[in-house]
Design brief:
about 25% strand; binds hypoxanthine; alpha/beta; Rossmann fold; 6 helices
Length: about 270
């Protein structure tokens, strides 16, 4: 299957018929961070399954809904539920959300995710503003024929997580009631959690948190010159940090506990953007 410019345009053209405004900011909600979607005013909800050429969320904690609306007076589009390579999607398919946002006219994207804390000074419930990432696993989502309407064949990724948005997110942390760090996100493909040895290696290599998402979207954003903010919620200490097995229930439980405060924090950032 070849993903052409027209393929993405068909999706965006369909979505443009759903609202009569251009969303300024896009948000992709990670595992169990869905409650943010309830904060969107005047929501127009589109099921992924009803969007031509779109993908579907197969993870139970991902709703699979695209929501247009207003947050703090700003026009937004929010994806409640994202796509991961561990669901069986190819890396090339994972460019889809960001390219659709670009074609919708979105000016900046916020990516959120649930992550394991590699940095032992972090605690479950802390937030990490992603300063950079390490991706040694899997292909690039930009592999294959380049689509020049989106960007160049070779492109810079040294400012992928937009410095000005990182600074703003740090400023908004004050008074949020959250402990907010800045750090490096280390990508693993999943769906298995990592081995303790992989986590030790990630730490030595400079990783502060681990997760199974986000990097493909970040690379796609860099390719099409989309300003980007990445926020990780530490839902657990990474494998081997504590002397007990890791469970998805632990991840879900922390995400649930933090989701209200985290939603308020994201809203505050959107207001200031
Ligand atoms: N590893 C990978 N992905 C995750 C983790 C983790 O420990 N926690 C939440 N998502």
């Amino acid at each position: 299957m070849e993903y052409t410019y027209e393929y993405f345009k068909e999706i965006a053209d369909f979505l443009k018929t759903k609202v009569d405004y251009t969303p300024e900011i896009a948000i992709i909600l990670g595992s169990c961070l869905g409650p943010f979607a309830e904060q969107i005013e005047n929501p127009v909800v589109v099921d992924y399954k009803d969007i031509p050429n779109f993908l579907v969320s197969t993870v139970p904690s991902h709703a699979g809904k695209m929501i247009f609306g207003t947050v703090c007076g700003r026009k937004v589009v929010c994806m409640s539920g994202r796509f991961h390579t561990y669901e069986g999607y190819s890396y090339e398919q994972l460019v889809l959300p960001i390219r659709v946002f670009k074609l919708l006219g979105v000016k900046a994207t916020i990516l959120t995710n649930a992550a394991g804390a590699v940095n032992t000074s972090y605690r479950p419930g802390d937030v990490m503003i992603i300063s950079d990432h390490i991706k040694f696993n899997g292909d690039s989502p930009l592999r294959g024929k380049n689509i020049p309407e989106f960007g160049s064949r070779f492109f810079d990724i040294s400012r992928m997580y937009t410095p000005e948005l990182r600074k703003l997110a740090l400023e908004c942390a004050e008074g949020s009631g959250l402990t907010v760090h800045e750090g490096v996100y280390f990508f693993f493909t999943g769906p298995q959690f990592e081995t303790p040895a992989e986590i030790r290696a990630a730490r030595i290599l400079g990783g502060d948190a681990v997760g199974m998402s986000t990097v493909t979207e970040a690379l796609t954003a860099a390719h099409c010159d989309m300003p980007l903010l990445g926020l990780s919620v530490m839902t657990n200490m990474a494998a081997g940090v504590l002397d007990r097995p890791l469970t998805s229930e632990e991840v879900d439980e922390t995400a649930k506990v933090i989701s209200i405060k985290f939603s308020e924090y994201v809203k505050r950032i959107i207001q200031q953007m």
